[in-house]
Amino acid sequence: MAFLDSTAPVRCRLCGWSEVTLLGPVAPTHPAEFHTNEFTLQHCGHCDVVYLHPLPSANDLRLLYQQSMQFTDAHYTDPAQVEKILAYYSGAARNLDLIPQNGARMLEIGAGLAWMSRACKAIDPTVLTIAQDVSAECADTCPWVDHYFVGTVDAIPDRGPYQMVSLTHVIEHLANPASMLRTISALVQPGGAVFITAPFRPSGWRRGDAITAWRDYSYLHVPAHITYFSRQWFELQAASHFSIAHWDASHENGQAFELVLRRK
Ligand SMILES: [Zn+2]
Question: What was the pLDDT predicted at 75?
Answer without folding.
Answer: 72
